[in-house]
Design goal:
By secondary structure, this protein is α+β, with helices and mostly antiparallel strands. 43% of the residues lie in helices and 18% in strands. The chain has two domains: 18-222, 2-Layer Sandwich (Cytochrome Bc1 Complex, Chain A, domain 1); 244-435, Metalloenzyme, LuxS/M16 peptidase-like (Cytochrome Bc1 Complex, Chain A, domain 1, 2-Layer Sandwich), CATH 3.30.830. It has helices spanning 59-66, 77-86, 111-124, 129-147, 150-163, 177-180, 185-195, 211-222, 271-282, 288-295, 327-344, 348-364, 369-383, 389-397, 401-411, 429-435, and strands spanning 18-21, 27-32, 38-45, 90-95, 100-107, 201-207, 244-248, 255-263, 300-309, 314-322, 417-422.
């Protein structure tokens, strides 16, 4: 085999699942995989920071913390963690802009015991005022921690710019210190009653587990969960006609930037085309940007191209951290490569390599019970549908080289540019603006 030969992976990811809907509207998804030695239970709620108003910003994330601070049956936080640790559990929770999840992953024979704890904290948490006050200090420190992580923070600054802070999508998930320290128990209960309803909740169990016993456990513990209609969110309908730049002037060791454009959302026909475009430009060590920015010039340790989607809107972006004096040089290279793919398209070799890489990563993402649970639960909670891996493969295989160039031409236009920067670059703002063009 020659060095430039491309291996096209032929994967067959057949994954059966079962879906049940309880009388109260709660959806249950089972993804049984008997060959596994673990099982994961994940409760996913279709809510997050985009369902908050400005005064509530940060409440979804704070509430996620509070579920672990004591229940009627396990009054102290240590009661919850000790019991889960004794089961060998990997457990945690997370909050996004349109989803919140709570999970436990355990050896298969411990899944019923683990779900007893998980279900308890989900429906019986007490939200004590003393714990709220204590946890507000923890979250303030979490905010401070992220402020000291510019490679992560630049993502938030980019979305602040992309969607505007007047829209929920443009606000930080974690909220502000002012909000976090002002929340009282009534705020949590009001939000809980509005968003944490059965129709807005999905329980997914994946891996090796006794399906009958698990379903009975879910019905017993969650069958009486509060009813109500799914909450609504504010649609993003903003338009852009000029280049947008924001600089968070900060003393850092590197300048971090994220530059990108608006795209359609996850319901758009070109979502898989965008995934391929990101793969070719910055999805791995053989990608165009990695080769040009790192390998040829040593300007960054890593450079990534990525996509992210909400139902009605999404983005394509490039992200990197560089020496302060190399920012403009790096941005010029990035825009040159984006323009090149819009005008010249992609080669057959890199197209096949990108598609093969996508398929391989899809296979890797389905290797563990927790990855499977989050994939299936989040799709059902946020999109009200589940696209199984083999269907994703079919869709990615329908993408053509022509599709990639067509989409690149459509989105890589000057009026669509957004650039967020963290670093001591304020005095260079005029020079930076000059290079933000295709």
């Amino acid at each position: 085999m020659q060095d430039n030969d491309i291996i096209v992976i032929k994967l067959k990811l057949v994954m059966d699942y079962k879906k049940y809907t309880l009388k109260n509207g709660l959806r249950v998804v089972f993804v049984p995989m008997k060959e596994m030695t673990t099982a994961t239970a994940l409760i996913c709620v279709g809510t997050g920071s985009r369902f908050e108003d400005e005064r509530e910003n940060g409440l979804s994330h704070f509430l996620e913390h509070m579920f672990f601070k004591g229940t009627k049956n396990r009054p102290k936080p240590i009661d919850i963690t000790k019991e889960l640790d004794a089961l060998g559990s990997q457990h945690n929770a997370y909050t996004g802009k349109d989803r919140t999840g709570y999970y436990t992953k355990v050896p298969s024979d411990k899944i019923i015991d683990a779900m007893d704890v998980l279900n308890d904290l989900f429906v019986n948490s007490t939200f004590k005022s003393t714990e709220i006050k204590k946890e507000s200090g923890t979250i303030v420190q979490e905010i401070n921690m992220y402020e000291d992580m510019p490679s992560r923070l630049v993502y938030d600054v980019f979305e602040n710019l992309l969607y505007g802070k007047e829209h929920p999508l443009g606000r930080d998930i974690i909220g502000t210190k002012e909000n976090v320290t002002s929340f009282v128990r009534k705020d949590f209960i009001t939000y809980l009653e509005r968003c944490y309803v059965a129709k807005n909740t999905v329980v997914c169990v994946s891996g090796n587990f006794p399906q009958g016993k698990v379903l009975a456990k879910i019905k017993k513990d969650l069958g009486g969960m509060r009813s109500g209609d799914k909450p609504v969110y504010e649609i993003f309908a903003g338009e852009q006609d000029v280049v947008a730049l924001t600089i968070k002037d900060k003393k850092t060791d590197q300048t971090h930037f994220m530059v990108g454009v608006h795209t359609g959302g996850f319901e758009h026909k070109d979502r898989y085309v965008l995934a391929m475009l990101a793969n070719i430009l910055g999805g791995g060590m053989s990608s165009r940007l990695f080769e040009e920015v790192r390998e040829k010039r040593g300007l960054a340790y890593t450079v990534q191209a990525m996509t992210d989607f909400y139902p009605e809107i999404g983005f394509f972006a490039v992200k990197a951290g560089v020496e302060h004096e190399n920012l403009i040089k790096t941005l010029k290279i990035v825009f040159k490569e984006l323009k090149k793919i819009a005008t010249g398209g992609v080669t057959d070799e890199e197209f096949k390599r990108a598609r093969s890489g996508f398929e391989g990563r899809l296979a890797f993402s389905m290797e563990t019970s927790d990855a499977i649970a989050s994939n299936f639960a989040e799709q059902e909670a946020v999109r009200n549908e589940i696209i199984v891996p083999e269907e994703s493969l079919k869709r990615i295989r329908k993408v053509t080289r022509g599709d990639i160039q067509r989409v690149a031409k459509e989105i890589f236009v000057n009026e669509n540019i957004n650039c967020a920067i963290i670093g001591p670059q304020k005095e260079n703002e005029k020079d930076i603006k000059k290079v933000l063009k295709f």
